[in-house]
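re: ur question from earlier - yeah i can do the single chain one, its not a big deal. heres the input i used so u can compare w yours
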Amino acid sequence: MTNYYVQQSIQIQFIKIGGMSNSSILQIGTCGQITTNNFLYNTGGFTEPAPEAEKNGNGEPPPSVTPLVPLQTPS
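and the output i got, formated as tokens:
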């Protein structure tokens, strides 16, 4: 087995991320190994399938809400 020792200095002046989803990985710099974990727990002790989703509202998006973190307007 070979060991690699990496010393790095990273400066990010600007980063724009178009989108991230639940299984996305954003890696900046090196990483020895990324292993995936996929766990499914039934913490509620449910024994039957979930009920069908109900439509909420009239199909229109909810009114805009001021975010807790200020965001730039998309360009």
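The chain has a mean pLDDT of 78. not sure if urs matches, ping me
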